What does this fold into?
Amino acid sequence: MNLFSFIKGHVSIVTVVNEYATLKKAGLYLKGPCPFHSEKTPSFTVSPHKEIFYCFGCHEGGDVIAFVAKAEHCSPLEAAKHLIDRYNLSVPETILESTTTAPAKKRYYELCTLIAAWCHEQLFKSSQALAYVKQRGIDVKSIKNYQLGYFPGGLVAIKNLIAAMGKHNILADDLVDIQILSRGKQVLFSPFEERIMFPIADHLGRFCGFGGRVFKMGDMRPKYYNSHENEFFSKGQILFGLHLAKREVQTHQKVIVVEGYTDCIAVFEQGYPYVVATLGTACTPDHLKVLARYAQQVYLIYDADKAGIQAILRIAELCWQVNLDLWVVTLPAGEDPASFVAKGQQLGASIEQAQDIFSFFIANLGSDFSHKSLADKVGAARKIIELIARLEDPLKQEFLLQQASTTLGLGVDALKKEIYYLQRAQEGMVAPRVTLPHPKPAEATASDPAMLEKKIFYSIINNIDLLASHNEDFLCTYLPEPYKAVIDTLRREKASNPSLTFAQLFPLLDESSQQLVSRIVLEYQEVITNEVFDQLIVQLQKKHWKVIVNAIKLKLEHARLQGNEQEVQTVIQEFLALQKKVLDKKINE
Ligand SMILES: [Zn+2]
It folds into this structure.
């Protein structure tokens, strides 16, 4: 038994899914609103017997591991670990040993978690640090929510930390290894001393790094000190606050991205829980890829002073690559979200007035247009045209052309002509899209001619004993892909394990086959009896009658040429039996 089958044997998919969506009984199955896409009518279906799920809206499907991997945006192995922790499963050593990832990784997260907890405790012990945090407008609720902390300074503090960690079998050397402490000539010290601590967690909420901010008057050190990157902590991938925001991000299908920890908290406190922060750096393609898993709309808060238009343009390009819609929220020059809020201003109005990236560019590139040199004018106009040409929505294109025409002082027709040339020049190239991603096409509907094959496939998956020696050759020949691949696997596995069960078969299928099986199982509620199944087979034989007859003719000819009279008789008997069955069926109809 491997880790996955152990987990599946100990946690029911219904229990797990119920933590993400409310399921209600619907016939043999359970239904609820899909946690992966927003919908009004529930199309997310779970089979408690087969332990699988399928969403008829977004076409995601699989077993409990696939569900958690999708919901938590992690690998199947991480999903397994998550389930072990969540449901307190005691996994036998033998199973664990074969699957554990680097114990160093687990240890690293544990260390960071303990340090975060220790610093959090220290914050409430230091009236000065606590007063500073509160004066920055961060309330106790947020301090707890983000587990903010304080790293006290001096030898006594370091000693206290080492003593506290010692209770968890952590040595000073371990703290040096993960660069919380540094070795001086004679003493240990920390670069985080006398700093407000912002513990940084990955998307699964595992603490993996720290940002420390100075706060005392006259402290001349750099304002921020961040953990160094290591194999578990990559600044270009991790977003501060994502583990707290991800549900809200998914629900709202939007995410606000800011640059600083305090900005993130300020925006959160203003009633926007779908906010995350880069770690004081610009957004990277990796950040956007992470965000694209959760939401379609990205709101970037833009400080009119700081972020150059070029920087935003660069992010816009990245957004197109990962199919995100970018909105720009402009704050007054010199303000960041935290300072803006600290002045008693509400962010709501600015967020509501967010400009989509196109309007933002037209307004900014075109500003002061009449005073630009001819070369700059042409350059700006081209850039805007390029942006508009990328759009797939003709109405949006038209609207922005009008806007651009006014800003640039050029006729709409001239702009349209440019777009036409540009698009022709790009023909054959795949233009990045800014529209919503197209859902995967739904397969076979009731009127589909492939319904019969689908029903046969469903019957077998629902009762794998239906695939028997007398029909498996035929089925493996006449069932089309993608069904054939699954039936082939089933046939192969059954050959070595005649009592194969659905639960054993499912993990052996590849991802797309798992999705297919989940969908088809959850699409039907019927119980197919052996008699009904036989009738379906006869229908399939009828459908392929000509081909079957030709194949039998060939077989017959072959036997005759070989002079194998016995084989000739067998083939003829086979043919007559088959013909009778198929023709009988015709009479019954
Ligand atoms: Zn869905």
